[in-house]
Amino acid sequence: MAESTAPPSRPGRSVLSLGLSHLAARGPAVPVVVTVLLLCVPAGSAGPGAHPGVTPADVCSGVLVVWCAVRLLRRSPPRRATGRPAPRALTPLAVLVLGAPAAAFAVTTAASADPAASLPGFVRYLQLFVLVPGAVLLSLRDARDARLVCGAVVLLALIEGGVGVVQACTGTGASYQGEHVRAVGTFGALDVMGMATAVSYGLVTALACGLNPPQSTGRWLRPCALGCAVALVVPLALSYSRGAWIATASACLLLLALRGARTTVCALAAVLATGVVLVGGLGVATQELTQRARSITEVSDSPDRSVTDRYTLWGAAADIWRESPATGVGPKGFPEHRDSHAALELSSGSDTAGAGVPFQREPLLSPHNMYLLVLSEQGLVGTVALVGSWGALLVCGLRRLREARRDGFARRAVDCGAVATGLLVWQGVDFLYGDIGGPSTVLTALVLGVAAWWALSPDAGAETAGRRTARRLASVPSPDRSPAR
């Protein structure tokens, strides 16, 4: 009997091989996951000689865009000897939705008074709203790739939220009312919205997955996802970000409403009961949270300083737009025109301190409203193109989610649609109180890419029509078989 020439098996070899093969199978989504997790790197760690505003996540997002461009240029026919699917090109609808903002950015930049000064803004807008979302759209091939990215977003939120809670408990966070208790995570005091954004994304993602668990997973996913969502409420509250609170509440209400009226009522009752116990009974951060929440609507009766500055900047942005209603003053043009249009009560800057940053005054370089920022800098041309692009993503995403819910066999893909829709609604509401800027902005571009994948990619609907496709393929005779005679 001939001896076997196979190498002796080693303990754990099969597990390692399985893990590596799974990672290789998810290859196109790995750069997206790496970009998300690189946001955990503290701000200012881009390396020696790097631009102060460039982060490791920015660098990785650029590599992702270049890699996707190379893959498209080297694209081969779908059926190859390796059996791996070739990267898809953008569909005509995706080209329209992503290309319209790019064309508008180019027009407003060329029409500005100083195109050279507006060029960095043009590149930034192109990166965040066209190139990176398009790269994510091309990188995600199916629902499993999208779930891998969603898991990375939740993991990032848990890490940043954990760091933020420690900062709030130990007094090592950013300054808030004279005390270093504001949770900012690894983003630092110069980007106080960074941790709130990451935690909000993770909370919405976890809630969407918990309410719509895919059938292919075990029973552990629902309680684990809902537990993560509940745990992330704490760092979100300690971030003292009013815009993130409102946006998260809006997105969560939408997800609950999509799930059903009974789920909505039960969830709201549980949240109300928990709030009464924590705030009313135990007195957890009662004074700070109550004062912060009330300051949202206080305008004339002893308003918060930040609220006054915000509304003053909104008025200045509207006045700037009236001077150039068609194309605005050009990207990055708001700071130059701010002082000539702002009221006298506008502060010279905002106080920043804590979390390793000494006290300093940060200039107010934006109106803290993305829609007014685009309107003032790029006029109606840029605003209609950009907001129209987001509206198209939301409409297409909701339509595909409705189709997935209507087909009972397609519940495996409903979680991806719920995540994409919830994150897009969160971003749309949050842009009413904030804009782009800081290290966390790359995460916004990645989230828009996930929403674009669900709304525009043919692969996102593959699971939706999975059974019908399987039946259609089964009815086609195999070319390797000859019909029975």
Automatic annotation (TrEMBL):
<feature type="transmembrane region" description="Helical">
    <location>
        <begin position="187"/>
        <end position="208"/>
    </location>
</feature>
<feature type="transmembrane region" description="Helical">
    <location>
        <begin position="122"/>
        <end position="140"/>
    </location>
</feature>
<keyword id="KW-0436">Ligase</keyword>
<feature type="transmembrane region" description="Helical">
    <location>
        <begin position="220"/>
        <end position="237"/>
    </location>
</feature>
<dbReference type="InterPro" id="IPR051533">
    <property type="entry name" value="WaaL-like"/>
</dbReference>
<feature type="transmembrane region" description="Helical">
    <location>
        <begin position="265"/>
        <end position="285"/>
    </location>
</feature>
<keyword id="KW-0812">Transmembrane</keyword>
<keyword id="KW-1133">Transmembrane helix</keyword>
<feature type="transmembrane region" description="Helical">
    <location>
        <begin position="90"/>
        <end position="110"/>
    </location>
</feature>
<keyword id="KW-0472">Membrane</keyword>
<dbReference type="Pfam" id="PF04932">
    <property type="entry name" value="Wzy_C"/>
</dbReference>
<feature type="transmembrane region" description="Helical">
    <location>
        <begin position="147"/>
        <end position="167"/>
    </location>
</feature>
<protein>
    <submittedName>
        <fullName>O-antigen ligase family protein</fullName>
    </submittedName>
</protein>
<feature type="transmembrane region" description="Helical">
    <location>
        <begin position="409"/>
        <end position="429"/>
    </location>
</feature>
<dbReference type="GO" id="GO:0016874">
    <property type="term" value="F:ligase activity"/>
</dbReference>
<feature type="transmembrane region" description="Helical">
    <location>
        <begin position="441"/>
        <end position="462"/>
    </location>
</feature>
<dbReference type="InterPro" id="IPR007016">
    <property type="entry name" value="O-antigen_ligase-rel_domated"/>
</dbReference>
<feature type="domain" description="O-antigen ligase-related">
    <location>
        <begin position="229"/>
        <end position="386"/>
    </location>
</feature>
